[in-house]
Amino acid sequence: MYTASGTLDKEQLVVQYAPLVKRIAYHLMAKLPASVQVEDIIQNGMMGLLDAINRYEEGLGAQFETYAVQRIRGSMLDGLRENDWLPRSLRRDMRRIEAAVHQLEQQKGRHPTETELAESLGVPLAEYQHMLQEARGYQLVYFEDFSGDGEEDYLERHITLEGNDPLTLLLDSNMRDVLIKSIDDLPEREKTVMGLYYEQDMNLREIGEVLGVSESRVCQLHSQAIARLRSRISGAMQVAPKAKGEGRGRGRRPAAS
What we know:
Layout lengths: L9 H19 L9 H18 L6 H20 L6 H21 L5 H8 L3 H10 L19 H5 L7 H6 L1 H12 L3 H11 L5 H8 L3 H30 L13
């Protein structure tokens, strides 16, 4: 990895780690809407790789790769933050789906099918699946989830509860248990997609090959699984903190003994 003069051969490092940049980019694409071009993600990632090469001063090897991954992902995310990559209309559509999931689960006592969800939303199945496809990039938790339209901020509402800073609320053991059970309760194919993507680090194309379906179908299954999980977690976020704060109020003094 060094030139004849004893300096790092940066061109050779770029060639060696370019496939890593592409793999990270394609893995990240599952979290991004269809409007985002993978070439743009790769370009930002290559800038991160060059930055890592220029900054790294230790001996090369596994440690450099770990460092490079952080710089590559960071550069990709920085590029995405500069653009409004998930329109509000898509978030509204997915929240409509979440509401339909919650309502049908309450009515039927089980996970609703895609057909049932489409009927509940009043759209054809193909249009519902297109909504899922377009909503690629919808995440499990957004910062905006902690504030409502015209309502008191969620974190402000609970920040005075003893020990309940934002991180504590997110890492609450009860919330973790809800998430684990919600994942375990997912329909089998959606649970498989989540496991292959998040545990096996496979991209959408690779998962499609395992399941024998198209990459776009995997994207739909992923988006639908996220909607189901968000529906469960949103319910837990509304109930659990309220229960913890029962009997307490902002500025309320404890009763005298």
